[in-house]
C-alpha cells in the first residue's frame, strides 16, 4: 500500500453510496441523479481537504447481501464510471458483503485497491457467511489486475466468527494462505471503534504488512489508533453531525487531516 500511496499513516476516506436500485430504501429517478450528486459531493469534500485516498462502498444497501445483485453491482459501476474523471487520488471499492463482486467491480473500474471480508466463516446478521477468498483472488489474476491491492477485513462487522482464533491469528493466516496485501481490523459494527488490544496484537504479528484501523476512527482517537496502525479507513465521523447516513462535512475532513498531518510531523 505504501508504494501506492506515498504517505506515512495512510488515511482512506469512505464515499458511501445511498441506497441503490432494488434495495428497500432506494429513492431516486431512473438516471440515479441523486446518487450521482451525493457521490460527487462527498468525493469533492474529501479530495479538496487533503484525504490520501477514497473508497466507494454501498453502505446504504440495507439489509445487506452476501451475494451481489445484478442491479446494485451494475449501478455502482455506472456511477463510478460517470464521476471517474473527477477522481484525483488513489481509490478503492467495496461491495458489502461479496468479495468476488468486489474484485470484479474494482477490476472493471480500474481501482487501485479493494476491501472485503475474504476469509473465515461467520454467524452474521445476513445469515451464515462463507467468503470465497480463492475465487476472488483467482478472479483478480484472471482479469490481469495483480496490481490491485486486496485489503482483508479479518473480523467482520455485524457478525461473530465461528471458531476460537484471535484476530491476530486470523490476520497472520490470511496473509499466508490467501495472499492478503493489507489487513483491516474492525469494530463490531460500522462507526464503532476498533479494540485497541486486538489492533496492537495484530500489528505485532504483521510487522511487515500494512494494518488498518477499519472502523470508529475519529479526531478524538486518531492519534492513539495511528500510534499502532499504519493507517485508517474513516467514514461516519467525517459526516455532518457524525451521522453515517449524512453527506461528508468538508470542515470535519479539514480538521481531521490537519490533526493527522500534525501526527505525521
Structure characterization notes:
The strands form two sheets. The protein has an eight-stranded parallel barrel with strand order 1-2-3-4-7-9-10-11, surrounded by four helices. With 265 residues, it is an alpha/beta fold. The chain has one domain: TIM Barrel, CATH 3.20.20.390. α3 runs parallel beside α4 and α5 packs parallel to α6 (196-205). It contains eight helices and eleven strands. Helices cover 34% and strands 17% of the residues. The longest helix has 15 residues, at 33-47. The model has no long low-confidence stretch (mean pLDDT 97). The two termini are 20 Å apart.
Q: At the third CATH level, what is the topology name? A: TIM Barrel
Average pLDDT, to the nearest integer? 97
Q: Beta-strand level of the residues, as a percent range?
A: 15-25%
CATH homologous superfamily grouping: FMN-linked oxidoreductases
Per CATH, which architecture?
Answer: Alpha-Beta Barrel
> What CATH first level would be assigned?
Alpha Beta
Count of the domains: 1
In short:
This protein is an alpha/beta fold.
Annotation keywords:
11 strands, single chain, TIM Barrel, alpha/beta, 265 residues, eight-stranded parallel beta barrel
Write the layout of secondary structure elements.
Layout: E1 10-16, H1 33-47, E2 53-57, H2 70-83, E3 91-94, H3 99-108, E4 113-116, E5 122-124, E6 127-129, H4 133-142, E7 149-153, E8 159-161, H5 167-178, E9 182-185, H6 196-205, E10 211-213, H7 222-226, E11 231-234, H8 250-264
Parallel strand pairs: 1-2, 1-11, 2-3, 3-4, 4-7, 7-9, 9-10, 10-11
Antiparallel strand pairs: 5-6, 5-8
Amino acid at each position: 500500500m505504501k508504494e501506492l500511496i506515498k504517505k506515512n499513516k495512510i488515511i482512506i476516506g469512505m464515499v458511501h453510496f445511498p441506497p441503490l436500485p432494488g434495495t428497500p430504501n432506494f429513492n431516486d429517478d431512473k438516471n440515479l441523479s441523486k446518487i450521482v450528486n451525493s457521490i460527487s459531493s462527498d468525493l469533492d469534500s474529501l479530495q479538496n481537504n487533503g484525504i490520501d485516498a477514497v473508497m466507494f462502498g454501498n453502505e446504504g444497501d440495507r439489509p445487506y447481501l452476501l451475494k451481489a445483485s445484478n442491479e446494485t453491482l451494475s449501478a455502482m459501476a455506472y456511477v463510478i464510471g460517470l464521476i471517474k474523471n473527477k477522481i484525483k487520488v488513489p481509490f478503492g471499492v467495496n461491495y458489502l458483503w461479496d468479495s468476488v463482486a468486489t474484485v470484479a467491480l474494482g477490476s472493471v473500474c480500474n481501482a487501485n485497491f479493494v476491501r472485503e471480508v475474504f476469509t473465515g466463516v461467520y454467524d452474521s446478521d445476513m445469515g451464515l457467511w462463507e467468503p470465497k477468498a480463492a475465487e476472488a483472488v483467482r478472479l483478480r489474476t484472471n482479469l490481469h489486475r495483480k496490481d490491485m491491492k486486496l485489503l482483508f477485513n479479518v473480523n467482520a462487522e455485524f457478525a461473530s466468527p465461528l471458531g476460537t482464533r484471535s484476530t491476530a491469528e486470523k490476520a497472520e493466516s490470511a496473509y499466508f494462505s490467501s495472499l492478503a496485501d493489507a489487513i483491516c481490523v474492525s469494530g463490531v459494527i460500522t462507526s464503532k471503534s476498533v479494540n485497541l488490544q486486538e489492533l496492537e496484537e495484530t500489528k505485532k504479528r504483521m510487522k511487515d504488512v500494512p494494518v488498518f484501523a477499519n472502523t470508529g476512527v475519529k479526531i478524538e482517537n486518531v492519534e492513539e489508533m495511528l500510534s499502532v496502525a499504519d493507517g485508517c479507513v474513516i467514514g461516519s465521523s467525517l459526516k455532518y453531525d457524525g451521522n453515517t447516513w449524512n453527506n461528508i462535512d468538508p470542515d470535519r475532513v479539514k480538521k481531521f487531516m490537519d490533526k493527522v498531518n500534525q501526527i505525521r510531523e
